[in-house]
Fold this sequence. Notes:
This protein has 357 residues and is an alpha/beta fold. The protein has two domains: 6-255, Aldolase class I (TIM Barrel); 277-349, no CATH class. 44% of the residues lie in helices and 19% in strands. The strands form three sheets. Strands 1-2-3-4-5-6-8 form a seven-stranded parallel β-sheet. The longest helix is centred in the C-terminal third of the chain and has 18 residues, at 257-274. The radius of gyration is 24 Å and the shape is globular. Iron/sulfur cluster binds at residues 13, 16, 18-20, 23, 25, 28, 62-63, 96. Residues 13, 16, 18-20, 23, 25, 28, 62-63, 96 line the site of iron/sulfur cluster (SF4).
Amino acid sequence: MIRRGSIALFIPHRGCPHQCSFCDQRAISGALPVTPERVRQELQAAFSRLQSPQSEIAFFGGSFTCLPESEMVALLREAVPYLEKGLVSGIRCSTRPDGIDRRRVELLRQFGVTTVELGAQSMDDRVLALNGRGHTTVQTVEAVELLRQVGLQVGLQMMVGMPFDTQAGAMRTARRIAVLGPDGVRIYPAVVLEGTRMARWYRQGIYTPLTLEQAVALCGPMIALFERKGIAIWRVGLHDTPSLREGLVAGPFHPAFKEYCLSFLWRQRVDPLLGRFPLGEALLLQVPPREHSAAVGQHRENLRHWAAAGYPVTVRSEAELTEGFRLTPLSSAAGCDKMKERAASPETAQKGSKTCF
Ligand code: SF4
């Protein structure tokens, strides 16, 4: 949930009046209260371990601004000195859309908060209501506007595969979130955790979570959508924690969920192009170096997929490629390589030899 370099402080929403279908309220109410003293100790301990400045102090847990105002301010006061000394570049918190109003936004700004993440979860009021979220899509839109007005960065979190949602509905939520233009998004596939209403619905046969394959096929295109709109992807998939593994009943959890989504996107890019080549032709897929492992796929799944479709594909990193890709017959690419070598040699370079690229 938290970006590398962040110091994360979990603020449980104790006594939460809501009943989100995916949340285990008992686990939250059993959590230790977070006091300013505890925040002070945790920050002191964190900074005594760390050598270099960190990106942010992050108050996460979902509902930071739903704390009584004096408590919220007391916690922020503990973080502010680190910001003033330049030991962190910002303070981040996550909250519910209905936990935002003009006064709270102003307070957050005054106390150095730089980014607020909102748990939008869905942009469909029916889905929100049936899952007991206790806020509406209008409140999400208004919260984004308020945060923007005071110059805060905004993140939106969405959940894919919630009860009473559909795959088309989740995609609509992604598109509506993209229109809001947040600075970053987190995409979480819904999983069934013990002690939740979702677990009860799952056992009663009222709810069936997405399979891993369905969730990947849904979240992959969402990643592409947000990237096209220039929206940063802060997280895809749930953090792999002992408590998650302990409580997991069912659902599309995988520690490499994002990697599966990125691999899926490469199949989506390449598959429509295969028909341009004779069946059985060995192909060369040239990709930017940072994309190599996603193009190959988790455990080489893309290579197996293309081979099963009749096209043995070799994936190669090309330092000169910063985006996009090239798909060519391997045989012609081998010829190109020879021409490139000749062009690079002192004898031929003088003569202006052509390369295939
Ligand atoms: S997830 Fe929902 S029910 Fe759980 S603490 Fe947050 S607002 Fe309350």
